[in-house]
Design a protein that fits this description.
The chain is an all-alpha fold. Helices cover 77% and strands 2% of the residues. The protein has five helices and two strands; from the N terminus they run αββαααα. It has helices spanning 9-31, 48-72, 75-99, 106-126, 131-163, and strands spanning 35-36, 39-40. Helix 2 runs antiparallel to helix 3 (75-99), helix 3 (75-99) packs antiparallel against helix 4 (106-126) and helix 3 crosses helix 5.
Length: 164
């Protein structure tokens, strides 16, 4: 398998991106309004320890997904999981344009977007799945990742309120 078909790239680039968020989100939230159209960026979590717990949970999900994909030899699983991450990176740039200032995660989003495009191409060339399989797996991944993100933000906000 060539390098851009490796199932392990997604967890690695996720952590690279989330380290930027982990370091800068608490400081950024001190000086910026975290709301965009009624939604609070980063769940409003301004503590690195709580943010790190949420990031750790997501990283474990990516590792589990990469492990299952590796065992099953299924590049489709990783490609489908990369799509929500791709849109996550794009959303960081939308936040920058909306806020008209730096938003944590924007720098790594700019760095990673071309890598993700090449990565997706590499994975799709390895995938022999039919269109209906793609559709089903992509829908499952988007629902799973969005649900998990909402759950993590809720847990982090609850934890922050209890510790305050």
């Amino acid at each position: 398998m060539h390098n851009f078909g490796s199932y392990w790239i997604l967890p690695l680039i996720f952590m690279f991106h989330d380290f930027e968020e982990l370091v800068f989100v608490p400081y950024w939230l001190k000086d910026h309004n975290p709301k965009i159209h009624g939604h609070v960026l980063f769940g409003g979590v301004n503590r690195s320890d709580i943010l790190a717990a949420g990031i750790w949970e997501e990283f474990c999900m990516y590792l589990l997904l990469a492990t299952v994909a590796y065992i099953m030899n299924s590049p489709l699983l990783v490609a489908a999981a990369t799509l929500p991450y791709f849109f996550h990176l794009i959303m960081h740039l939308v936040f920058v344009f909306n806020k008209r200032t730096y938003v944590p995660g924007a720098i790594t989003a700019i760095i990673e977007l071309p890598i993700i495009i090449v990565y997706l191409y590499g994975l799709t060339t390895l995938t022999k799945a039919s269109l209906w399989e793609w559709i089903i797996v992509v829908i499952i991944m988007f629902v799973s990742f969005i649900s998990n993100l909402k759950f993590i933000h809720w847990i982090m906000a609850e934890t922050m309120h209890k510790l305050s």
